[in-house]
Amino acid sequence: MKKLAALFAMLAFCLCANAQFTVIGGLTTTTGKWSESVKTENFSQFHVGVGACCRLGPAFALLPALVYNVKGMTFQELKDGNWNLKERTSYLEIPVQIQLHVPLLPKILDLMAIGEPFVSYAISRQYQEGGSDWTGVSDWGDAKRFRYGVGLGAGVELFSHIQVSARYIWDFAGSEFSSLGEVPKQILDGKSSGLKVSAALIF
């Protein structure tokens, strides 16, 4: 699965070698499923990057990109309340949007259905306990730095140069929040997902 996702991303970039340059940015939120004894709260982070929009006729487009994506989450033990942990992790990510366009007003307004497989690699991690300062993590231990998954969503394209979209993201690699010293097993065993809301300018 990992090799297929990476190969697909590289092929998409090759297909779009002569496509329109694109700048992408937006908000990233993280949700997930952990133990019932763990309370989680998201705090929104961000993503920003560049890509190439490749038109494949009036109805289809590919948009591969290279994105800096930051995810964050707060964890709290409900049983005895002996820990409260915030964590944020930064990734270099290659998402490849597969877009189906439905023109409403030709060259003015398109509706879009979007599928977005992605691969990513964690490059930095920070945590905060009990309101203390953010601390960087240098020892990754058994943390899963390589990620892969898929997003599904919808959006609009305006004047063939502005796209606004939202995608729900499923991460297939298991919990990304792990290996911070004595991190409780409830976090290590969790599964995460999330939401990305983006704006893209196509030149």
Largest sheet: 8 strands, antiparallel, barrel
- Count of extended strands: 10
Task: Indicate the low-confidence ranges by residue numbers.
Answer: none
Q: Span between N and C termini?
A: 33 Å
- Rounded to an integer in angstroms, the radius of gyration calculated over CA atoms is 18 Å
The helix tally amounts to: 2
Oligomeric nature of the chains? single chain
Element order: H for helix, E for strand: HEEEEEEEEEHE
If you average the pLDDT, what whole number results?
A: 82
> What sort of overall outline do the alpha carbons produce when their principal axes are compared?
elongated
Provide the structure class. mainly beta
**Strand order in the largest sheet:** 1-3-4-5-6-8-9-10
Strand coverage percent: over 45%
Q: What is the helix content?
A: under 10%
Could you write a compact summary of the structure shown?
This protein has helices spanning 2-15, 185-188; strands at 20-33, 38-42, 45-55, 60-77, 84-105, 109-129, 135-136, 146-158, 162-171, 191-202. The chain has 203 residues and is mainly β.
